[in-house]
Amino acid sequence: MNHWMLYAAVAIVLWGVNGLFMKLGTNRVSARSMVIWVTVGFLVLLPLLWKESTLAGLSTSVISVGLIAGMVNGLGNWAVFACLERGAKASVAIPLTALYPLCTVILATIFLKERPSALQ
């Protein structure tokens, strides 16, 4: 098995567990509060992740892309939390919102000129 496939498997499991916690959280607090607590969770992990990363030598454009990705991710999280807060079942909402790779494929085809094969 390729090393990246192991990370993909870990992501699948963690995101599956995350869907459960998203619903549990929005049963108790607002979507906005959940975004704040998810951000705090990321900050708790920051010291562990920082050891393997550095900002030295990164261009402004690379940092900007990272910040934009973080903001878009945060807004996406808020939208999922709002969906769950307003009564969506986690067993429906989480898989439905997990269709986001279709959007990525379309955008990558248009903007990055990627041409995925039938197998991909």
Description of the structure:
- With 120 residues, the protein is mostly helical.
- The longest helix is centred in the middle third of the chain and has 26 residues, at 60-85.
- Helices cover 75% and strands 0% of the residues.
- The protein contains five helices and no strands.
Radius of gyration: 17 Å
Helix share, percent: over 70%
pLDDT < 50 stretches: none
DSSP, total strands: 0
Short description:
This protein is mainly alpha-helical and 120 residues long. The protein has 5 helices and no strands.
Features:
single chain, 120 residues, mainly alpha, 5 helices, globular
SSE layout:
Blueprint: H1 3-26, H2 31-50, H3 60-85, H4 90-97, H5 100-111
